[in-house]
Design goal:
heterodimer, A: mainly alpha, MetI-like fold, 9 helices, 77% helix, B: 288 residues, mainly alpha, 10 helices, 0% strand, disordered C terminus
């Protein structure tokens, strides 16, 4: 336990990276995923095919391969993220958002977007066809059908799968650690290396922090779900 | 597209507009593909030297034997162990006894919430980082714990999805709890959850790539050997492309099997839904 207290600042810094990775990739994947979902449910066949292709390709590729692409392969064709270099000074050391961090965020975003797209699409598909037909029959215009009838129901059906996708993203941020971002996983590996006798304590400690983070996300999603629930 | 909840059947003007958008989108997509190809060409990514390992028999054999075969071996050992883990803890979560239910619930929730990589590094260190066999087992055991925890949920949901009357009828015939579970509920549940089980195989197969971190054998290991070999002149792009394609093909085959099984054994019913982490409270879920 004193090991954690001794390294509390380094550990906090590491989890700051984890949370930042999660936030950036979470927002990015929601935006990209929404665009993809719009493509997949839209009326333009070409875009529908493109969206489907994207989802099938990305969903079946391991995350490690996606991130290796952006971290190691992409620089070979001059796809670098060197323009990003933000340093956030904290009391215990700087949080550096550099090219490596950006490459990992891009990889996580690209990967998670495919799952966000599927979650959103399943939400739209969960709305019965009769709902839209009834809305049109009583004379609602397109915007009314969407904002009053279809989207509220779709959104409601979307929250649980979306929350699952974002929880998976939080856990997947550790893969970025394996490819050069100094986040929680890297910190744990380093601490284990320096204190091999404390293996169990270190693992259970870090794991419990992740469990807490996951439970927080799960709690938020439950509150949201309850707020939009009918009946 | 007819039958969409989002749009009415398009009239002539909407059709004309959609045609324009189709052409525009098509041009845009083709242009971006062309741009990517040109970019790759300009950076010399199509040189023979960079693709040499993927057409020379020695390396193809290495990719297939040390890569694909090892990856599949890890994935299937992990899934087999995970099924065992899942059955034990899934049934444990359904137990009538709180002393059995709570620990099972805790174990399942814990392993579902912990990133696989953390578990992998932990087991790797536990087995000893200097031993040759430990990376392999680190991957297999970490995947067993994670996928087993997910499968426990699948099993529980599957058993709960068996119509209630089945268990009641079995009890009415005078069967014991074990008998009801083994001869009545499990066989029917297996049918319901087969597709979910195969989808989990896809997850396990993809996650074997995490073995990269503990230097485990498999596709990512072979990939690293190939792209760090100076003889091929920095061929990261071709390597990632080939390895990615192999994973995609393997997973598409598994997905096709899952779809077939779903159609063959389950019919058009919905795929089993599994609750998310932290969703359930074992005290609220009294056994039937």
């Amino acid at each position: 336990m004193e090991l954690f207290w001794e390294h509390r600042e380094a550990i906090a810094l590491a989890f700051a990276y984890t949370v930042l990775l999660f936030l950036f990739a979470g927002i990015g994947s929601m935006v990209l995923g929404t665009v993809l979902a719009a493509m997949r449910v839209g009326p333009i066949p070409v875009l529908r095919w493109a969206g489907t292709l994207y989802v099938h390709l990305v969903r079946n590729t391991p995350l490690v391969i996606v991130i290796i692409f952006f971290r190691i392969a992409a620089p070979k064709i001059d796809l670098k993220f060197n323009f990003v270099d933000v340093v956030i000074p904290t009391g215990v050391g700087d949080v550096r958002l550099n090219n490596i961090f950006t490459a990992c965020v891009v990889g996580l975003t690209i990967y998670t977007a495919a799952f966000v797209c599927e979650a959103l699409r399943s939400g739209v598909n969960a709305v019965p066809l009769g709902q839209a037909e009834a809305a049109r029959a009583i004379g609602l215009p397109f915007s009314g059908v969407m904002t009053q009838v279809v989207l509220p129901q779709a959104f409601r059906a979307t929250i649980p799968p979306l929350a699952n996708v974002q929880i998976a993203l939080l856990k997947n941020t550790t893969v970025a650690g394996a490819l050069g971002v100094a986040e929680a996983f890297v910190r744990m590996r380093l601490l284990i290396k320096n204190n091999p006798a404390e293996l169990w304590t270190l693992f259970i400690g870090f794991a419990l922090i992740f469990v807490i983070l996951v439970e927080v996300l799960s709690f938020i999603s439950h509150r949201l779900e309850r707020r939009v629930r009918v009946s | 597209m007819s039958g969409s909840v989002l749009f009415d059947a398009p009239g002539p003007r909407a059709l004309a507009r959609q045609r324009i958008y189709t052409v525009l989108a098509g041009v845009l997509l083709v242009a971006s593909v062309v741009w990517v190809v040109v970019r790759l060409e300009q950076n010399g990514q199509f040189e023979y030297q960079k693709w040499e390992p993927f057409v020379s028999p020695v390396y193809i054999e290495a990719i297939l034997v040390d890569g694909v075969l090892e990856t599949l071996k890890m994935a299937f050992s992990a899934i087999l162990l995970a099924v065992g883990f899942g059955v034990v803890f899934g049934i444990g979560k359904l137990s009538e006894h709180a002393w059995a239910r709570w620990p099972c619930w805790a174990v399942v929730e814990f392993w579902r919430a912990v990133p696989v990589l953390l578990a992998m590094i932990f087991i790797w260190n536990l087995l000893g980082t200097d031993k040759d066999s430990s990376p392999y087992w680190a991957v297999v055991l970490a995947l067993m714990l994670y996928n087993g925890a997910v499968l426990a949920e699948v099993f529980r949901a599957g058993i709960n999805a068996v119509p209630k009357g089945q268990a009641e009828a079995a009890y009415a015939l005078g069967m014991r709890k074990t008998q009801v579970m083994l001869t009545i509920l499990l066989p029917q549940a297996v049918k319901i959850m087969l597709p979910a089980l195969i989808s989990q195989c896809v997850v396990a197969l993809k996650d074997t790539a995490l073995g990269y971190v503990v230097l485990a054998p498999g596709l990512t290991y072979v990939a690293r050997l190939i792209y760090s070999n100076p003889q091929f002149g920095q061929n990261q792009i071709p390597t990632v492309f080939v390895v990615g394609t192999i994973y995609i093909i393997l997973n598409l085959i598994l997905t096709a099997i899952a779809t077939w099984v779903q159609k063959r054994f389950v019919g058009e019913k919905k795929v089993l839904e599994v609750s998310m982490v932290g969703e359930d409270d074992p005290s609220a879920r009294a056994p039937r």
